[in-house]
Amino acid sequence: MPADGLPGSEARALPAAPAVYCHDLVVRYGPRTAVDHVSLVAGRGEVVCILGPNGAGKTSTVECLEGYRRPASGTLQVLGLNPTTDHRALVARIGVMLQRGGVYPMLGPGHALRLFAAYYERPEDPEALLDRVGLRSVARTPWRHLSGGEQARLSLALALVGRPEVLFLDEPTAGVDPEGRLAVREVIRDARDRGACVLLTTHELTEAERLADRVLVLAQGSVVAEGSPTSLVGEPGAAREVAFGAPPGLDLGELEGVIGAGTTVTEGEPGRYRVTVAIHTATASGGSPQVLGPDVAPGALAATVATWLAGRGVAFSDLRVGRSLEEQYLEVLHTRGEGPEPQAWKPR
């Protein structure tokens, strides 16, 4: 078997193949291993997000899947095709959004979209795409005079113009204003809803939490966490957590007493609080699991905290049940030696 994946004939013989299949991918730059046996699978109608710090191997992984970089070893398939040996057949079926460049600097969005549309047999309507990504008002403005956010939206539109079955997006909301972010999110959801597979890289953890069906976290070239955004923030039943913002110096002991035994309230950064209620399970004599500890559901815990704050006239904000994906991501990297301990969770 060749190092860059299955032969094209073998790949095409798998009718049930996922949209994207990557097994034991290795990428080396001289003596350095940039991607170390990474595996991932992405299906049609699914948004998969690759997270990780700079140098984690995100871009190298995606470039191999796009067919623009040859790996040292591993098995790769995109739409049942080998990205390298079947690249000519594959390129018409995928869309690639680059973070920078890829557009003639003197072309405006309207001209660029019409030009790229001419490369495909059944392209999207360039005029409709201008409206979808919010570039109608600058349709004739040369690319080099567009703002960074407008350039990003044009790059996204160019990736969409060929009606791709797999869409590769590199930092799709980097430098994009809030209005543009909404447009980008809508476009990604639309692509997923029509059955396209969307594989994106980002440093925007909030975007990943809102958009992704599944998330992979890379660190030092390896997958260190994988799952849905919900599953990654903690194992259900292990604890009940609520985070909120309020003036510094609250009486944490009093709040712990109101909620009950097994409760820990910490103040990390000044004015940022986390309430954690340990939940333990045991098996009763009849074999059914029993919850040991405060009988408090996540919603009830949030209501108790809000009532306690309101009863003392304390203004609060950002009340959140459970951890955010960003918090879990930073904790994973910290345990791997990739970053400092998250101060927002560290008790003072």
Describe the structure in brief.
The chain has helices at residues 8-12, 58-66, 87-90, 109-117, 126-132, 148-160, 178-193, 205-211, 229-232, 252-259, 298-311, 325-335, and strands spanning 20-29, 32-42, 47-51, 73-78, 94-97, 166-170, 197-201, 214-219, 222-227, 239-245, 263-267, 272-278, 280-283, 289-292, 317-321. It has 348 residues and is an alpha/beta fold. The strands form four sheets. It has a six-stranded mixed sheet, sandwiched between helices.
Task: Give the SSE layout.
Elements: H1 8-12, E1 20-29, E2 32-42, E3 47-51, H2 58-66, E4 73-78, H3 87-90, E5 94-97, H4 109-117, H5 126-132, H6 148-160, E6 166-170, H7 178-193, E7 197-201, H8 205-211, E8 214-219, E9 222-227, H9 229-232, E10 239-245, H10 252-259, E11 263-267, E12 272-278, E13 280-283, E14 289-292, H11 298-311, E15 317-321, H12 325-335
Helix pairs in contact: 4-5
- Distance from N terminus to C terminus (CA atoms, Å) equals 56 Å
Question: How many domain regions?
Answer: 2
Named CATH topology of the largest domain? Rossmann fold
Structural class: alpha/beta
Give the biggest sheet: 6 strands, mixed
CATH class wording of the largest domain = Alpha Beta
- Identify the strand order in the major beta sheet: 5-6-7-3-8-9
What's the name of the CATH homologous superfamily of the largest domain?
P-loop containing nucleotide triphosphate hydrolases
Rounded average pLDDT: 83
Please compute the radius of gyration using only Cα atoms. Answer: 24 Å
Count the helices. How many?
Answer: 12
